[in-house]
Design goal:
Elements: H1 2-30, H2 161-165, H3 173-182, H4 213-228, H5 233-242, H6 250-259, H7 280-288, H8 294-330, H9 332-348, H10 381-392, H11 400-411, H12 415-439, H13 449-484, H14 498-535
Helix pairs in contact: 4-6, 6-8, 8-11, 8-12, 8-13, 10-14, 11-14, 12-13
């Protein structure tokens, strides 16, 4: 029963599709739009603009539209089912082309049918081929592998040497031929690895190492670097015992210190009678195992080589403090300038009980001169002071360059660090003395450390006492300078109060240069006016 229903439904659909195709074909044959409308014809809707050709109908036949078949009513009875043995009609393929009108010729085989109302394209000529052209064959001569020249390619621009080269005419065919022959790449034959008989492991893999891989690698690299400087492990060990600065310089000692293990790790090598069978890094450690507190020894050796430069630097800083004290406290030009400023200030403050008749002023008042302006000339008070000093030659200008230099130097000094560096030298002297006393009982006769370090300490102690005395005197002068300038609440080893003096000096120099520039401009102006007057 179910199969019968499906067959009926398929048959019904086939009939409906066939009917629609017949109606569509009938319309295409009998209906055609007017392609040549008259000039006076009005444009109407496309649905209403279709006209029937009278020639397509029989003579005397009325012009009527093609009747559209009425749809099947829903209550219409279904067609009788086919017997089970009856064959079904063949379905019409969905992609089958619609039938052509009678006045259009059938296309040639292999050519698609034209669409209605569209002109057919002209046929292809006899010599026209539909097959695509063949791909160009590769020239094997151009693919010859040559040695590359790795230059940076550029594009020639006008008015350049590369543009001029384009016009050169030379026959280079023979040269190019030789070039391809000489610079042709040859295939390198791969060398076959020869199989070694016997033990496959490398000879270094059998070496014994008591160090971890990282330390072993660092020591080995350091030894290879020193080896390029003709420094072998035996030479390095002997140089450390003898403090031989001709063999090991400061850079080499710091390199060794950065890679050697801690002192406790050297105890592992006491189990070995010699260094046979040890790796390169371990052989080096074996040679150094009998040197007590090796890391500490190297640090003291580095201190011995660096302390002279450090002491010279400290003396230089202390000298700057002394020069600053002497310059500021004894400079006559600066004192003349302060006297002029004091007189001008008292004059401006006449009638002000709190500010007039001053016998001195705080250095912070020097910064006010550049901001105090004249209502008449619009010049600053500092400009007035500079101009008047130059006008009457008061010898109050020559201090500026010397002050700027020495004040910049003294303000860069950190006096807390300076005192700390001096104290650190004293601590090193004590620590080295204690180290010598500690190793004296197990001293190796070949070890020259004690002998050379005691000689060094004797000279250093004398130099340290001189440095201490110099430091105390210089720092005392800085404190006295603050008192001399009548600076209030100055802490020990503090020179920030000199910043006000440096700021004033910088402003004074800028104002002086501006005044000189204005005077030169004024002189040129007067000269031009004089020349113009003489020319009249």
């Amino acid at each position: 029963m179910k199969n019968t229903y499906l067959i009926n439904k398929v048959f019904k659909n086939i009939l409906l599709i066939s009917l629609c195709i017949l109606v569509k074909c009938n319309k295409q044959i009998s209906v055609k739009p007017d392609l040549n409308p008259g000039k006076n014809d009005k444009r109407v809707d496309s649905k209403k603009s279709i006209k029937f050709r009278k020639n397509s109908l029989p003579a005397g036949a009325p012009e009527t539209e093609t009747p559209t078949p009425a749809p099947l009513p829903p209550s219409a009875p279904l067609p009788a089912p086919l017997p089970p043995s009856a064959p079904l009609p063949a379905p019409i393929p969905s992609n089958a082309p619609a039938p052509l009108p009678s006045n259009i010729p059938a296309p040639a085989p292999g050519i698609p049918a034209p669409l209605p109302n569209i002109p057919v394209p002209p046929p292809l000529s006899d010599n026209t081929s539909l097959t695509p052209p063949p791909l160009p064959s590769k020239d094997k001569s151009k693919t010859t592998s040559l040695t590359s020249l790795h230059w940076k390619k550029i594009y020639a621009k006008k008015n350049t040497i590369w543009e001029d080269i384009k016009h050169i005419e030379l026959d280079l065919s023979d040269i190019i031929k030789d070039l391809k022959e000489d610079f042709k790449k040859t295939k390198k034959k791969k060398k076959k690895k020869s199989k070694k008989k016997g033990n496959k492991k490398g000879k270094y893999e059998t070496k014994i190492s008591l160090l971890d891989s990282s330390k072993q690698q660092n020591i080995t690299i350091a030894l290879k670097v020193l080896e390029r400087k003709n420094l072998l492990p035996d030479d390095i060990a002997n140089a450390i015992l003898n403090l031989d600065e001709k063999i090991l310089n400061l850079e080499n000692i710091k390199k060794i210190l950065s890679v050697i293990p801690i002192d406790e790790e050297f105890d592992k090598y006491n189990e070995f009678k010699n260094d046979e069978g040890l790796a390169l890094a371990d052989k080096f450690c074996f040679k150094l195992k009998d040197i007590p507190n090796l890391k500490q020894r190297l640090k003291y050796w580095i201190f011995k080589l660096e302390v002279k430069e450090k002491i010279d630097d400290l003396y230089e800083k202390l000298k700057i403090c002394d020069d600053a004290y002497d310059l500021i406290s004894e400079n006559k030009e600066f004192k003349n300038l302060l006297f002029l400023i004091l007189k001008i200030g008292n004059t401006l403050n006449t009638g002000n009980r709190k500010k007039s008749n001053a016998t001195g002023f705080e250095l912070t008042g020097l910064e006010l001169l550049v901001n105090t302006k004249s209502e008449k000339t619009k010049k600053s008070l500092l400009t007035f002071i500079v101009e008047e000093s130059m006008k009457y030659n008061l010898k109050a200008l020559d201090f500026k360059d010397k002050f700027k230099k020495i004040l910049n130097q003294v303000l860069k000094i950190d006096f807390n660090d300076l005192k700390k560096d001096i104290d650190e030298i004293g601590e090193k002297i004590v620590n080295i003395t204690n180290y010598i006393n500690d190793i004296r009982s197990r001293h190796n006769p070949k070890d020259k450390f004690i002998e050379k370090m005691e000689e060094f300490l004797a000279k250093l102690k004398t130099e340290y006492k001189k440095l201490q005395t110099k430091s105390e005197n210089s720092l005392k002068k800085i404190k006295e300078l603050a008192e001399y300038l009548q600076i209030k609440k100055v802490k020990d080893n503090e020179v920030e109060y000199l910043q006000n003096l440096l700021t004033f000096t910088s402003d004074f120099i800028k104002t002086y240069e501006k005044v000189i520039k204005n005077q030169e401009a004024e002189a040129r102006k007067k000269l031009r006016m004089k020349e113009k007057k003489n020319s009249l």
